[in-house]
Amino acid sequence: MSKIRMEDAKSSYDVLVAGGGLGGLSAAKVLARNGLKVLLVEQHFQLGGLATYFRRKGHIFDVALHGFPAGMIKTFRKYWTKELADRIVQVKSIRFDNPQFSLETTFTKEDFTKILVERFGIAKETADAFYAELDSMNYYDSTSLDNRGLFEKFFPGRNDVVRLLMEPITYANGSTLDEPAISYGIVFSNFMSKGVFTFLGGTDEMLRLMQDDLCANGVDIVLGGRLEKALISGKRLEGCVVSGKKISCKALLSNGNLLNTIQDWVGEEYFSPEFIASLSKVRLNNSSCQVYMGIRKGKSIPFIGDLLFTSVHPTFEPGEILSDKVSSRTYSVYYPEIRPGSGDHTVVASMNAKYEDWGNLGEAAYREKKRRLIELTIGNLSKYIPGIADKIDYAEAATPKTFERYTLHRGGSSFGTKFDGLEPSMKLSEQIPGLYHAGSVGIIMSGWLGAANYGVICANKILKDFTC
Ligand SMILES: Cc1cc2nc3c(=O)[nH]c(=O)nc-3n(C[C@H](O)[C@H](O)[C@H](O)COP(=O)(O)OP(=O)(O)OC[C@H]3O[C@@H](n4cnc5c(N)ncnc54)[C@H](O)[C@@H]3O)c2cc1C
């Protein structure tokens, strides 16, 4: 129906979707389009989850609109609307600047191949064979090859090549050389072969269009509604408690963190001991820090590229990217064209981060560390935009604590869990009929594309279970 208050929600729905991240939103859309009565509750006061935005001092800051793969066009067209799909445009300029190389790329297979051959002296056959190996990877094949092994196979001893091919993915989600090559391969094939895309109008416009579409499809949306408990009776789900109100439902789809879902909102006692034991293998992903910088109205900045992967670390060391002695930063520069007519310029610097480096600080130490992070980031950005400090009229930082506060992800995890969360996530309904999860688990089922697609997969599973 529409955006409603919790007290106006009905007492019974077919499906309750808890969480308005891209996974929850996409699932709600597919479920409603197929005739189910859906209530979507989001604990924050706006939709989007990690894919969100905020307004300060006349600026709009996008938190996670740095780039997504071409596949998003198909996902939007198929499961959302043509209008959403038509807003997707390619990111024009992506640059790397580090002690090993400075270069610009379109993030396409052709361009990477050209760079590998002409810039790094790799034989064309080797570059082609690398791409062929990635193309042949199938998620369901079991293989023990890890990223280190994959790169050694094609580019032995070439840390610079590994940096080119892996650093953007490590920046995005903290992937290391020790993780399975299959998960890297699929993300690489999605992300680094057809270019990187963005949403014209910004995250705020995307979420507005999504909300309108959900309402048009009859979804009831409650903002500030928090799933507190799943109610289980006779081993199956019978309802939920949301912000103190009991709602009966045949299915609950949690879009929140997998571990919160099982341990906090359901309770381990409802699962088999084997299932709970298997959770010990599920690792949370790391978190992020960001520095948001708004440029004073009337001032502008030169075009320096849309996405800038910068590092002062001499070589590529995934562990260093996570350290709080920040040596690597990704800048997303938003020119007025992203929000036509706005005249707004903003820059968002993103860094990987560990919760333990921020979560246990006292108030004063936390504030000081944030202040220093902002100061160092602006100093580093001056290298690319001389005089930027004088043009900034708003600067703020987000830390793992910020991400935890706004999304409830434990440890402020920016991509949910690592890939080992996928199996338990997919098996929830085998443990408790009526219970489902579609939230970020691993690098394939996360990011904008993965999260949206996982929501759709889960919605289809619910639809199938409803008709059985
Ligand atoms: C700094 C940063 C930059 C990123 N940049 C990119 C990028 O450029 N490209 C890209 O593809 N991906 C990016 N990502 C990742 C991407 O944004 C996420 O993987 C994706 O948005 C996650 O979607 P999700 O559906 O899994 O859930 P989430 O976004 O995690 O949303 C879960 C939602 O559930 C809500 N919730 C939690 N608990 C409850 C409860 N009990 N009751 C009600 N609601 C609840 C939360 O408030 C939240 O809204 C970035 C992430 C971060 C942190």
Mind sketching the topology for me?
Layout: E1 12-18, H1 22-33, E2 38-42, E3 53-56, E4 59-62, H2 71-79, H3 82-86, E5 88-90, E6 94-98, E7 101-105, H4 109-119, H5 124-136, H6 147-154, H7 159-173, H8 181-191, E8 197-199, H9 202-216, E9 220-223, E10 227-233, E11 236-242, E12 245-254, H10 258-266, H11 273-278, E13 287-295, E14 307-311, H12 318-322, E15 328-334, E16 346-353, H13 363-381, H14 388-391, E17 392-398, H15 400-407, H16 422-426, H17 428-431, E18 435-437, H18 447-467
This protein binds flavin-adenine dinucleotide.
Flavin-adenine dinucleotide (FAD) binds next to helix 1, strand 2, strand 13, helix 15 and helix 18.
Task: Offer a few descriptive terms.
468 residues; alpha/beta; seven-stranded mixed β-sheet; 18 helices; 18 strands; binds flavin-adenine dinucleotide
Which percent band covers the strand fraction? 15-25%
Distance between the termini: 27 Å
* Number of separate helices: 18
Helical residue percent band: 25-40%
Show unreliable segments. Answer: none
Biggest beta-sheet profile = 7 strands, mixed
The unique ligands bound to this protein are: flavin-adenine dinucleotide
Quick one: how many beta strands? 18
Architecture of the largest domain in CATH? Answer: 3-Layer(bba) Sandwich
Any idea of the CATH class of the largest domain? Alpha Beta
Q: Would you tell me the overall average pLDDT? A: 94
Helix/sheet category: alpha/beta
Q: Based on CA inertia axes, which overall geometry fits? A: globular
Number of domains: 3
